[in-house]
Amino acid sequence: MAQMSLRPCGDFRTTYRQDKTIFDTRNSRVAMAIFLVFAFMGPLYLDPYQMSLAIQICYYGIAALGLNILVGFTGQISLGHAAFFGFGAFSSAWLNNTTGIPVFLTVPLAGLMTTAVGLFFGAPAARIKGLYLAIATLASQFILEDFLVRAEWFTGGSSGSPAGPVSLFGFELNNDGRYYIFALAWCVVMYILGANLMRSRDGRAFVAVRDHYLSAEVMGINLAKYRILSFGISSFFAGIGGALYAHYLGFVSAEGFTILLSIQFLGMIIIGGLGSVMGSMMGTVFMVLLPEAMKMLADGMQAMGDIPSLRDNLDFLREMSIGMAIILFLVFEPDGLAHRWRLVKSYWKLYPFSY
Question: How many domains does the chain contain in total?
């Protein structure tokens, strides 16, 4: 009787190397390569408005990943992420305006400056946690907001500060198509760094601190070091995202970095999935496109008949949809979109024995 070639149905990993791979199957690697090719070809098929949304996803996605490293992977809390995002924006603009350093270099330098600020404000995390840490980070939000308004030498005060265009070897990225490639390249690099960080010794230490800090301390993990370090890394990602934001708009003002933006960042990682690198991007895409979907829905309803109340309260409805989405995800899908995606993948991987 001829031997039949049987392929095992399931997920079999026999080494730590296999367990730590980012893309564990050939199909997933091919799919990601195809996705990146189409992403970098975006200027060929996206209109200017769609391009602007894609750029928003890039810089907000980087900042959201930083917050997820802090909240989702380390178990800390921050209500001041928007302030660090804003500090990165002003830092890059200030470096370019005062020293003449090319924007291509001020972006990472702004991330390093924001890291220093994040380490300073993250110092209380060595001694406090939970609600007390939430209040401390809320205080950092208001302290930095006030600093950004009053430090005219650094931010231009209430008048704001110009942010010059990106120039690479004399070639200016002065339109959305060119800037999209620049922002997407930074987004890919930062997500690769984030994914590899979670596979490293420090990344596993973050997770151990989150899951059971007493057990982590018994194992020899320095709780104070990794709690403060998580704030620094989170601030670095926020600073990079803020710098990309500033040079895309060409002008940066302190009014754009309020507590409401911090809550939106929290919404991104809650909807995408806490403790998931991919979930940070999924949540960002959801939060950026949800107001646009609500606008399309409102326009469709308006086309069926003039509804003055709907027309006058469109902005309110768009903001309300974000809050409603966060509540619904907390109730019905607390693990976020990334968890649902993992369930779908597991179903097809184990089919027909998915039970």
Answer: 1
